[in-house]
Each structure stands twice: as structure tokens, then as C-alpha cells.
Write a structure and sequence with these properties.
The complex is a heterodimer of chains A (about 425) and B (about 260). Chain A is an alpha/beta fold. Helix content of chain A is about 50%, strand content about 10%. Chain B is built from ten helices and two strands. Classes of the chains: A alpha/beta (about 425), B mainly alpha (about 260). Chain B: Pfam families: MlaA.
Chain lengths: ~425, ~260
């Protein structure tokens, strides 16, 4: 009898206990922007083995693609591959917006999963130049359906390349940021194609709608004096601030200690910090726009029919492309391209297709998904976060802080990620 | 045709990187102006560095990419494969310790008293307790390393960096820093000749060229940067900016408004 009371009261107290566990979350940086820039302080990042069986795959996904000399160094799609000697499950990982397979956060995930016995293949984001040049059939990035089909094809090519060298027991999938959103679409495609039969899919800090999240990042830059059109002035001002701070402080070199002290000394205001994130987004976007424009010969920032050589100056293209907004890209380049392919396509319909909402039924019903995100991830609106909570009820883990993937390397997050993929394999 | 060793490869790479791949000149379509051009630009340029020889620099950047790809990185990988990590770290330690001489002479020329004393302390500690630099007890004793070179010294005394310059093998530099590199190399060579540690072995030349080669391999081994690894189409500008700014800031100068 007492035991029953005890059990019942314990069950009743459970949410409370969970709540107090939540407040004990030890990731130290409260600000969303600061967390995003600084990531996890080195002392709180778990130590991972430095040696692993590793090589970079260079894949010929599109054998017929002619490459401009300006991309002479691009000899194929580059994927990072870590492999075990023995039979093991294989995880495919998709990088976040504008980054390639060597992105620090992605390599961290590769190492962490390798350390607990997985094979891992990490792919660049479809918004990265390498993917646009070597793996995107349209050369126009940003459409979840087409990008995911290209990703799937790249995964098949990668798998074909390594299948003779490793033994695989089952397949998993994961990604962060835009790569997380793409994972959902890749998983859906896999339900038809059945090449991998992904057992579990982990989405880390996904965007619900690419259009809304792109807009959120644009907003960050609106807060700077003069707005985004004056981002160059803003950048140079921040640089002066940065340099003066260095020369007046007693620093040994520009290193982690120095960068961390910028945060603790609050060198940049919240608006300025936000502006710097917005500018970083623009710089990434510029690479994507330029690569796409060269591949498709659309005459958007590079003159149509111009043959660029590797020694040509790209300086003006760099300045022009960084001054184009996400909305410019959508309205002037992305939508017209798809409208040409599918006459009658409205802009709203195209935007709606770039959202998890378009495959909601599948996401709701499939038990294979897991989501990790943060309460203060600024690429999500309140409505987006509520939506994720509702659709992925019981399969979502929300941390109180960490900004946009700032806490990925924090020990609790790492443990959760690893446990998610291990679950069945390790219980066996 | 038989390949005549590394010089042929080097010559080939130089030719490749300077000419670029020849593109067919015929039936080229007429160019059409793009939708967005620099004419609509009403802002300051950012990440901008004086670079009048950009064409040459880009060719050198490309040359270094090939030099890495076909010569240096394979050699470094071979070195890393046959040498235990423990030994690699000791080798790096020895060369890093020897370069403290450069750090010391330059912080002295910049009249930085505390820094010179720290660097001298590091050199003495690591040469003795650290067994010739194989270990680094000085850092644990609170003597932090301060990298100095003659380029920074010139900058400290007010010499402008001059145009950006990409050097073969060494990579990103400037006119000032190239001069600095030449002076540092000369000073090191002068000290080395004066001391001549292998004079009595009878194989002084062979030994010292072996050491120079090992130093070059170790230098590339310690440097994680790889040309075009980011895959970002504007990598050249980011690297140029970061190099220039880091040098300006660390030599105590403010960026131009």
C-alpha cells in the first residue's frame, strides 16, 4: 500500500523533477547570439579520440557536368568518411547552411559517432558551392524536394564507393540547421526508394520553413545603422573596434582566450552581435549565389556567357553578391527559375513547399524521427517552436539555451545525440 | 616521355598555374551584362586589402595548391605515417624552440623588455629542462610564447605593409613581410654558420640540408591550412583579409578607416 502511494507520488512528481533537471542544464552562455558565435567553451566540450580511420571521398555524381575554370580545384563532391574495421551501423550526416563536409561542428559529430562505433559519411550542404558545382542537377539550390533528391543520389554514390570496404548493419541519418530540414525530406524519399531504410533520423536545430528562417536571418542585419545596404561600413566599424580592443588589452595573440574575452567584456552590443551573424549569413549566401550563377550561366551577378579564368579577379562579384538579400535571391532568381519549369506555379506555393508543413502527415506518423533544438534558437518563431513541439510530441528535446547550434558540442547535447543513434543497436 | 624527378613536376605545375587551363577561344557567345553590377553599389568595400598584383597572386595561390597537392601534402602524410605522433611532437618542439631565437631578436629590436625576458626565459628553460625544446615546460611555468618576426618589427616601427603578395611555398604575405622573411632567414643562417654545429662531422652540408628539409616538412605538418579546402568561391579574399588583418593587429597597428 505504502509502496503504491510512493509510486503514484513519484509519478506525479516526475514532471517537477524533469523541470528541475532542466534548470540544471549547464551550458553557460545565456544569450542566443553570443552562444551561436562562441559555441561551447573548450573546457565543457567532451574530449574525443584524435585518431580515427578516416578518408575524404571525392565523388563523381554528375559525370557530364562541365566545370568553369574558376572552380578548377573542384574535382568532385567531397564527403568525409570515418569507418570501423568491424561490422557497424552507418550514419549519413548533412551539413548546415553554406558549409562543407569539413565544417567544425560536422567534424565534431563525425568524431563523436565514430568514437562509439559507427561508420559515418558527412556530406556538404546543398547550399555550398562544392555541392552546387558537383552534385546539384539544376544548379539552383534551395528547393527541399530537389536538393533532397540530389542528396539521396550523392549518398547512393558514396555508398557504392565504400560498400566493398566496410560492413554495414543498418543506416541512420542526421543533420543540423538546414541540413536537419533536408534530412526529413531525404527520409521521406527513402520510404519510396528503400535503398537505405533509415532506422532513425535526427534533426538538430531544424528550420520549420526555409523562407521564414531566411527572413529571420535577414532581420538581424536590418538592425545595423543604415540597414543591410551599408553592411560594408558596419563591418569596417566592427573591425576597428575589434583591433582597438586588441591593442589596448594585453593579449598574446588572436586566439580563443581573446575571442572569449570579447564576449565577457561585452565589446559588441546585442544589435551588433546580431548584425555580425546576419553578415556571416550574407557572406555564405554570396558564395551560393555566385556558384549557382556560374553553373547555370544566368547572368545574375556574372555577365552571361563570360568565361571566367582562375586568375580573374572576383572582387566585384564578391561585393555585389554580399549585398544581395535572401529575398532578392528568392524573388529574382529562385522563383523565376521554377516558374519557368512549371508555368502556373505561384510564389506562395513554392514557398510553402520549402517547409516541414508540406510533409507534416509523414513526420507526425513516422516513429523514426527525433528533434533537438533550443528555446532561444532565433531561426524559429514562437509559432515554429510550438509547431515542432506539437508535430514531434514525445520525440523532441528542447534545451533552454544555446541559440542556433551553439550548444551542439556541449556534453549533455552530445550524450543525447549519441544515445539517440545508439538506442537499438546497443540494446541488442 | 620520362619524368625527370621533382623539378619536372614543379616546372609543369608552375606552367599550369600561370597559364591556367587553355580554353577554346572560338565560337564564344557574346556577353550580356548581369542583372546586378557594382554600379549600384553605395557602400564601403569590406575585407579589402591593397592588391594591385591580384592576377599574379591568384596564380601563385593556384601554384601553391598544386605544390601542396602533388608534393608537400603527400610528403607530410608519409612523414606522419612512418613517424610516431610522440616523435612528431618532439620534432615540432625542437624547431619551435629554435625559432625562439627569431622571436627574441625581434622583440629586442622592438625594445619590448618584458617580452624579451619572457622569450629568453622560455628558450633557456625549454633548451635545458625541456631537452632542447622536445618538451615545453616553460608554458606550464606561465611563460607564454610570443611570436615575433622582422615583418612585425618593421610594422611596429611604422613601416606600411605594402601590397599583398602570395609567395610560392610560404603563401600569403606582403611586400613588407617578404622583406622581413628574407632578413629573418639571413639572420638565422648567419647564426647557424657562426655556430656551425656539425662542422666536425665531415658531412656538414648533407646534415644541414636534411635538417632544412625536415624543417619544411614539419612546418607544413604544423600548419592545418589547405588551399581551397573551404570550397568557398571567395576564399582568396577571406584568406587575404584574415592574413592582412591579423598581421596589422598583432604588429600593433590600427586598420585604416
Amino acid at each position: 500500500m505504502y509502496l503504491r502511494v510512493l509510486i503514484i507520488s513519484w509519478l506525479l512528481l516526475l514532471p517537477l523533477a524533469a523541470l528541475s533537471a532542466e534548470t540544471e542544464y549547464g551550458y553557460p552562455i545565456p544569450g542566443a547570439y553570443e552562444a551561436t558565435i562562441l559555441g561551447t567553451p573548450a573546457s565543457l566540450v567532451p574530449e574525443l579520440p584524435t585518431k580515427m580511420r578516416f578518408r575524404q571521398l571525392v565523388l563523381e555524381v554528375l559525370p557530364d557536368r562541365k566545370k568553369s575554370d574558376v572552380f578548377f580545384y573542384d574535382d568532385g563532391l567531397r564527403c568525409s568518411f570515418a569507418y570501423q574495421k568491424q561490422k557497424a551501423p552507418l550514419v549519413f550526416l548533412i551539413a548546415g547552411t553554406g558549409t562543407n563536409d569539413r565544417a567544425a561542428k560536422l567534424m565534431f559529430m563525425v568524431k563523436a559517432l565514430y568514437a562509439v562505433g559507427f561508420h559515418v559519411i558527412a556530406l556538404p550542404s546543398p547550399s555550398h558551392a562544392n555541392f552546387i558545382v558537383s552534385a546539384s542537377r539544376s544548379g539552383v539550390p534551395g528547393d527541399l524536394t530537389e536538393d533532397s533528391a540530389d542528396l539521396y543520389r550523392a549518398m547512393e554514390t558514396a555508398w557504392k564507393k565504400v560498400a566493398g570496404d566496410i560492413e554495414v548493419s543498418s543506416f541512420y541519418l542526421g543533420g543540423y540547421s538546414m541540413g536537419a530540414t533536408q534530412s526529413a525530406f531525404v527520409a521521406k524519399l527513402d520510404e519510396q526508394r528503400r535503398v537505405f531504410n533509415f532506422k532513425k533520423v535526427l534533426m538538430i536545430n531544424p528550420a520549420v520553413s526555409l523562407y521564414n528562417s531566411g527572413g529571420k536571418l535577414e532581420e538581424l542585419l536590418k538592425q545595423i545603422p543604415g540597414g543591410p545596404k551599408k553592411e560594408g561600413i558596419f563591418f569596417n566599424k566592427m573591425l576597428t573596434k575589434f583591433s582597438e580592443y586588441y591593442s589596448y588589452g594585453n593579449f598574446v595573440a588572436i586566439n580563443d582566450d581573446f575571442l572569449y574575452s570579447i564576449y565577457t567584456e561585452k565589446l559588441f552590443s546585442p544589435e551588433e552581435t546580431a548584425g555580425l551573424i546576419g553578415l556571416t549569413f550574407r557572406i555564405n549566401l554570396a558564395g551560393m549565389i555566385f556558384a549557382s550563377d556560374v553553373v547555370t550561366n544566368s547572368g545574375y551577378v556574372v555577365p552571361k556567357n563570360r568565361v571566367l579564368k582562375s586568375s580573374d579577379s572576383l572582387s566585384d562579384y564578391f561585393m555585389v553578391a554580399t549585398h544581395l538579400s535572401f529575398y532578392d535571391y528568392i524573388n529574382e532568381y529562385f522563383y523565376p527559375y521554377f516558374k519557368k519549369q512549371r508555368p502556373g506555379l505561384t510564389k506562395d506555393a513554392l514557398i510553402e513547399a520549402q517547409s516541414l508543413r508540406s510533409i507534416e502527415g509523414y513526420l507526425k506518423s513516422s516513429p523514426k524521427f527525433g528533434v533537438m533544438t533550443n528555446e532561444n534558437d532565433f531561426i524559429l518563431s514562437k509559432a515554429d517552436l510550438d509547431y515542432l513541439k506539437r508535430i514531434f510530441a514525445g520525440r523532441i528535446k528542447i534545451y533552454p539555451r544555446g541559440g542556433h547550434i551553439g550548444n551542439l558540442e556541449y556534453k549533455d547535447n552530445l550524450a543525447y545525440m549519441v544515445a539517440f543513434f545508439q538506442e537499438k543497436e546497443m540494446l541488442r | 616521355m620520362r619524368c625527370r624527378g621533382p623539378w619536372m613536376i614543379l616546372a609543369l605545375m608552375l606552367a599550369l598555374s600561370l597559364t591556367g587551363c587553355a580554353s577554346p577561344r572560338g565560337n564564344r557567345l557574346a556577353e550580356v551584362a548581369p542583372r546586378h553590377t557594382i554600379a549600384e553599389f553605395r557602400d564601403q568595400r569590406f575585407a579589402d586589402v591593397d592588391d594591385p598584383w591580384e592576377g599574379f597572386n591568384r596564380s601563385m595561390y593556384r601554384f601553391n595548391f598544386y605544390l601542396d597537392k602533388f608534393v608537400l601534402i603527400p610528403v607530410v602524410h608519409g612523414y606522419e605515417l612512418v613517424t610516431p605522433t610522440f616523435v612528431q611532437n618532439r620534432v615540432s618542439g625542437i624547431f619551435n624552440n629554435l625559432s625562439e631565437i627569431r622571436n627574441l631578436t625581434n622583440s629586442m629590436v622592438q625594445l619590448k623588455g618584458v617580452e624579451s625576458a619572457t622569450t629568453l626565459g622560455r628558450f633557456v628553460t625549454n633548451s635545458t629542462l625541456g631537452l632542447g625544446g622536445m618538451f615545453d615546460p616553460a608554458t606550464r611555468l606561465g611563460l607564454a610564447r610570443r611570436d615575433e618576426d622582422f615583418g612585425k618589427t618593421l610594422g611596429y616601427w611604422g613601416v606600411e605593409s605594402g601590397p599583398y603578395l602570395v609567395l610560392p611555398f610560404f603563401g600569403p604575405s606582403s611586400v613588407r613581410d617578404t622583406g622581413g622573411l628574407a632578413v629573418d632567414t639571413g639572420v638565422t643562417y648567419g647564426i647557424y654558420t657562426a655556430v656551425d654545429p656539425f662542422a666536425n662531422t665531415g658531412n656538414s652540408l648533407a646534415i644541414s640540408s636534411g635538417i632544412t628539409a625536415l624543417e619544411a616538412v614539419d612546418m607544413r605538418h604544423q600548419q592545418s591550412f589547405r588551399y581551397y579546402e573551404s570550397g568557398y568561391p571567395f576564399e582568396y579574399y577571406m584568406v587575404r583579409f584574415l592574413y592582412h588583418q591579423k598581421r596589422e593587429i598583432e604588429s600593433g597597428k590600427h586598420p585604416a578607416e
